[in-house]
Amino acid sequence: MSDSVRAETPRNSDVCALGRKYGGWQADSPEAVICRQTYGH
Questions:
Q1: Residue 2 and residue 16: Cα distance in Å, rounded?
Q2: Exposed/middle/buried for 2, CB within 10 Å: 0-12, 13-18, 19+?
Q3: Which of 6, 30, 32, 36 lies most in the core, judged by the most C-beta atoms within 10 Å?
């Protein structure tokens, strides 16, 4: 990843929130559970 991309990417991005919002994950879906276990969100 280039330095310019790193500089523009928030350090605290909540990938689980992105999955819920744009991926349509339900709170108890396998995807959401795996994300929480992996990323802690």
A1: 24
A2: exposed
A3: 32
